[in-house]
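Hi there,

I know you've been waiting on this one. I reran it after we fixed the sequence typo, so this is the corrected version. Both the input and the resulting structure follow.
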Amino acid sequence: MIEANTRQKILDAARERLLANGYAALSTRKVADSAGVALSQIHYHLGTKEELVLNVLRAENERLLDRQTAMFSQDLPLNQRWVIACDYLDADLDSGFVRVLQEMMAAGWSSEVVGKEVWLMLDGWMAVLTDAVGRAQADGVRFGGLEVQEVVALVAAVFLGAESLILSGMENDTLPIRAALRSVGRLFADVEARIEA
């Protein structure tokens, strides 16, 4: 019980520091200080800094996937689901999750272990999107002849690319990324209105 409690204290402290400061600025020593444990306890319970971060990111990702799955399971028009997904993006940017995920994606370019873990996380999001797009298609929404997986690939690329541009500080009046994302919801509303007519 004490070991489980120590592990959870470490994970809680790491989550707080990670979401506030990102992966690059994360120090296991500072996590240990925040958790009130010896630095050796981090290595004993969670291994490396990468493993610590991946444990935190897995738990956070699972929580957000549950939220997304619940939202897409609601009986709402696709355009309303899109707007909610944009709201979630804003919340996830504010929480720091998006920055950490993007940092771990970049870390995965040079670390096969991190790359595989991040891919598993992203694959969970793709499964949620695949289900949502498939149900929209079953409800009569046509995506210009695109197959379900093609729509999912484009949506993933749009959101991940938008996240990267926003985090890079490129969102401004000449590149209104969030406003453009929200406009896609209006396109879906137009498509759905034509289906109902």
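Quick highlight: The radius of gyration is 19 Å.

Best,
R. S.
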